[in-house]
Amino acid sequence: MDKLQWNSFEKKIYIHSTIDKLYHLWATEEGITSWFLREAVFKTHDGERRKGSEFIANDDTYTWKWHNWDGEAKGKITQANGKDNIEFSFDESMVSVHLEDMNGVVIVTLKQFEIPEDDASKLKIHLGCSNGWTFWLTNLKAYLEHGILLNETEINLQEQDLAGWIFVNM
């Protein structure tokens, strides 16, 4: 990415782990629910639900549910190479996650792109998701390096107006 723009953003973080472990945490139901989601369902292109430890594949679909949010996200896996790269539709846009070993530490690069450039998308997707992914990548690092989760799973934050915009650990 050469310059800041409304239709995409990029986030990077170094994590002391392995590519194999990180890929598992992004590409399986049991992995992604350990640090990110309350519930995840991945289905094959034939509509069969994947087993909890089974890797996602191209053309799979997903349904995700978070702690402290009643909604759900649905999308499609457009790329999953089984080792270090995943791409999926997300919130009227696309997200890619790339894992790369850098001298024994993994750099996770997340890009969200094809974001519509209307004012609502600038606020909700670009600013909202950019802030959200910053937190979730930090949560992933805390989980892998320190065995803790930073997101709130016990207190119902939704009882407060604008909770999703003001709590950093939603």
Walkthrough of the structure:
It contains 4 helices and 7 strands. The protein has 170 residues and is an alpha+beta fold. The chain has a single domain, classed as START domain (Alpha-D-Glucose-1,6-Bisphosphate, Chain A, domain 4, 2-Layer Sandwich). A 7-stranded antiparallel β-sheet has the order 1-7-6-5-4-3-2. Helix 1 crosses helix 2. The radius of gyration is 16 Å and the shape is globular.
Lay out the secondary structure.
Elements: E1 8-15, H1 19-27, H2 29-35, E2 39-43, E3 61-65, E4 72-80, E5 85-90, E6 93-102, E7 105-113, H3 119-146, H4 163-166
Antiparallel strand pairs: 1-7, 2-3, 3-4, 4-5, 5-6, 6-7
User: Which class in CATH terms?
Assistant: Alpha Beta
Q: What value does the average pLDDT take?
A: 94
The best one-word shape is globular
Unreliable segments of 5+ consecutive residues: none
What is the CATH topology? Alpha-D-Glucose-1,6-Bisphosphate, Chain A, domain 4
CATH homologous superfamily - what is it?
START domain
Please outline the major beta sheet. Answer: 7 strands, antiparallel
Number of strands: 7
- Judged by helices, strands and strand pairing, the structural class is alpha+beta
Task: Report a brief summary of the structure.
This protein has 170 residues and is α+β, with helices and mostly antiparallel strands. It has a single domain (9-166), classed as START domain (Alpha-D-Glucose-1,6-Bisphosphate, Chain A, domain 4, 2-Layer Sandwich). It has helices at residues 19-27, 29-35, 119-146, 163-166; strands at 8-15, 39-43, 61-65, 72-80, 85-90, 93-102, 105-113.
